[in-house]
Every structure is written in structure tokens, then in C-alpha cells.
Amino acid sequence: MAIVHSIAADDGRRRLTLDSPVDRRRIDEIDVATAAEVDEAVARARAAQANWAARDVAERAEILRRAVDVLVARRDEIMDTVQAETGKPRVEAMAVEIVPSCDFLSYWTGRARRDLRPERRKLHGYLRPLKKLYINYQPLGVVGVITPWNGPFVLSLNPVVQALLAGNTVLLKPSEVTPRSGEWVVRILREAGVPDDVVQVLHGDGETGAALVAADIDKVCFTGSVGTGRKIAAACAERLRPYTLELGGKDAMIVCADADLERAAAGAVYLSMFNTGQVCMSVERIYVVDSVADEFIRLVSQRAAEITYGPGGDTDMGPLFWDRQVDVVTRHVNDAKDKGADVVVGGAPAAGNGLYFQPTVVLDATHDMDVMTEETFGPVAAVMRVRDEEEAVRLANDSRYGLSGSVFTKDPAKARRIAARMATGSVVHNDAAVIYGVPEAPFGGRKSSGVGHVNGTDALRGFTHAQPILIDRWQTKAESLWYPYSDKTIRNLEAVVRHGFGNRFLRRFLS
Ligand code: NAD
């Protein structure tokens, strides 16, 4: 039985009931925002935007900085909500949701002034004596942020905070699987002093998300599945509206012959299974060089078998957060078994009422198995032996996804060489998912894994329009190119081309 149900309420609107993934007890109900309510919220956000944008970026940052104190003070309540909706262990509620959120808030509020205030940019060559260039970072207006359920607080907070700092008003549509965890973002920001209409939450499922995308907004920032990302891109294309898409992944981990095998095995298990394996950029498939494969596999199997899971919040692993994931993970593991893989640890949903899946190790995986090609999003370490690092890179790139990847080796220079050949948005040495928690890293997916960046200066400025302003230095009566054209006009242009660009020495001076 599904844990999210749509029911008709007495007043004719749709309501969603939500059951716990731990024991399927009813934990909540939400009213689904109708298209008309979405439009009303957008209108309020539109009306509030000018005042919010009129505040200096330092003032906006000051307000948002207060949210760190609110977040620190309210962390237990936020973690209670996240745990109620996802069942993830307390450690993960803290490590995945709270710590990076504190860091994102602190980082972006410290960074915003530098990255968003008007800047002067030096012009090159012959333009320098004639003009001055300034860049304004203008807010786009109203931004819609649509988020998934796997990191329901942090994945909502990060884009919302950036969009607000840039002077936009924001409508957040959190996942219907974890609505209250997302709602906390809006609550703490309002408590810190962000006006109500400047940041709002809209509850509901895909219908509400689609209504938000169709509404009169100026950018969509989406994190979620590839399928939904495509629909959003198509809707935005119709209206020529910008969007950022952070989508799924099938991140490869490469274990080189010179890897520290203790670290590689511990990393393989943890990075495949923390957050119950529901992490978009971590480890979804593992390529280990044959010469060290036996020992690596022994260590991985041993560690995976030691993982504790089940209700209580103090085990190593919680349940899958959504019943649909149980079906996906089961299907992938069974498909691997049917095609000849060896499942040496786990391999099935755990007994009981909750959405638990046994920590699983799949050996002898190949690229004709879903577990190596489709996003599994569950606690599965799928291992494939490769001849050498060359083959590992080739197989890592043999994917329609390109979110992130990892290389385990004792040699950082080799890690960089391999990384340069990986067709992924980012690469991490001797670790993986941590890259999302590095706000200065321009994190974003390639291929089907996304469009644009969610971190780095590009991401923050992605919530603005960079408006170049060209200032006239000399204010002469007319430019030499303006009417009327004469022989002198063409002689001047000819001189620039022939004596300037046509001369190697001067060309360097002009560039
Ligand atoms: P999803 O696409 O089903 O839903 C994501 C959000 O979109 C939800 O809020 C949902 O209600 C909304 N939505 C659904 N249909 C919509 C529509 N037609 N128009 C607008 N909004 C719509 O994804 P999910 O199952 O919630 O999340 C899991 C996926 O997210 C995985 O594929 C995972 O890899 C990906 N993910 C990616 C990142 C990243 O940073 N790249 C981070 C977390 C999760």
C-alpha cells in the first residue's frame, strides 16, 4: 500500500495523506494547492518582489544570516520532522540536512555581497581607452523551486536561500513525500525576518508542481527525476524562461590498483548506502581493478554485512523513504540475479511493515543489468571487475547519466588525470557525495543529469540577469563610425584592421 494517498476532502479539493515509511502509521495530511491558489501565491510574490529587491544585498544577507541562529535553535524540531517523514537515522538527519544547511546559509550570506553587487570589469585592447564596463546583477523576479524527498530540507534550503539573496521572491514546492520537512525552510526564514510574501510554500504533488511551472514565474529551479526534468524543460522552452535542472545520476566509483583498500571498501559501502542509498551524487556502481578486486570485495562484503538497520533512529540505516523505491530496488536486484550476478549480501526487502531493504552487495555486475545502467537509489553496492583503469574509465563513461564520479587512489595526480577524462559534472578523490556540500564548487550534471549549476558563483548569479552597462568615457559629439560615412571612416577602420590586428605585436596589445 502506498504511503502517499490522494483523497477527496469534503470541500471538493484534493488532500494527500502521508504514512510513515518506518511502520506505515498515518503521520500527516496536506491540502493540495490548486492551480488558482498557485496563481494567487505567485501574484503575492510578484507584488512583494520590488520591495525585497530594493533592499541592499547586504541587508538581505543580514536577514538571512539570522536564519542560522533560528536553524541552530530549531534543529531538534526540524530533525524530528525529517525523521517522521523519512525514518532516516538521527545521525543522517544531522549530517545530511542540518550541518550542510547551516554551512550553506553562512556561506551564501557571506558571499552574496561580493558576487551580487555591481562590478566594474576591465575592458580589453582598443575598447579600454574608449568605454567603461559595469555589470549589474538584476533579480529575475519570482522563482519557483521544486524539490525531491531524499534530502528534503537541505535540497530546498540551498536554492531558496540563493534565490532570495539575489533579490527574487520564491515559491517552494517540496515533495509530497516530505512536505513538512520542506516547509521548515520557509518557517525558519520567516522567523528570521523574511516577509511572508517573499518566501512561500505550496504543498501538493506533480499537479501542483506543474501548475507552478505554468504560472507567471521568471525561473524554475528543479531538483528531481530526469522524467520530470524533461517535462519542466519543455514547459519552460515554450515560454523561453530559464531553468536549472539537477536530475538523477548513476555515479561510478573507480578503485585503482594503488587504492587504500580499507578506505575504498569503507567508502564503497558507506557511499552506496548512507541515506539508504537515496543520494543522487554518490556511488551507484563500482569498478575495481582486477589485481585488487578479491581483497576489495572481501572487505566490502564484510562491512556491508555489519550494517544495522530497522526502526528506532539509532541504527546505521533507515528505510527507503517512498514505497515506489522498494519496487525499483527489488526489480534492479532481481534483474541482476536473473542475468548472472552473484548477490553475496542481502538482496531483498526486509521482513516487516516498514520500507526497509537489506544492505545488498551485488558482484559480477555487467552493463546489461539495470543495476549498472539505471538509477537504483537504494542500499546496493554493485561491483564489476575491470582489467585496468583504462577499462574503468571507458565503462564509467558508458552511461546516459553524468552527475558525479569518484576515483580511489593514493596518487592525487592520477585522480586528476582520470577525472579529466570522466564525462561527469564533478569528480571526487577518495570520497563522493561530499561535493554537494562544497558551495564554492560549481556542482551540476552533464548528459541526462541536468542543466546548469546549483552551487558556485554561477549558481548564485543564475538567479539574476547579468546586465552589462557600457559607459561612455569621453562624451564627444559623435562616434567616428556614426553618419555620415566618408572615405575617412573606411580609412580609420582599415587602419585598425591592417595596422592593429594585422600586426603581430600590436595584436597582442589589442587583445
Ligand atoms: P520527481 O521528479 O518525481 O519529483 C520531484 C519534485 O517534482 C516533487 O516535488 C514532485 O512533486 C514534483 N513534480 C512531479 N511531477 C511534476 C511536474 N510534472 N511538474 C512539476 N513538478 C513535478 O523526483 P523524486 O522522486 O521526488 O526525487 C528523486 C529523484 O531526484 C532522483 O532521480 C534523484 O536522483 C533526483 N535528485 C537529484 C539531485 C541532484 O542534485 N542532482 C538531488 C536529489 C535528488
UniProtKB/TrEMBL annotation:
The active site is at 246, 280. GO terms for biological process: aldehyde metabolic process. InterPro entries: Ald_DH/histidinol_DH, Ald_DH_C, Ald_DH_CS_GLU, Ald_DH_N, Aldehyde_DH_dom, Aldehyde_DH_NAD(P). SUPFAM superfamilies: ALDH-like. Keywords: Oxidoreductase. PROSITE patterns: ALDEHYDE_DEHYDR_GLU. Belongs to the aldehyde dehydrogenase family. This is Aldehyde dehydrogenase. It comes from Nocardia mexicana.
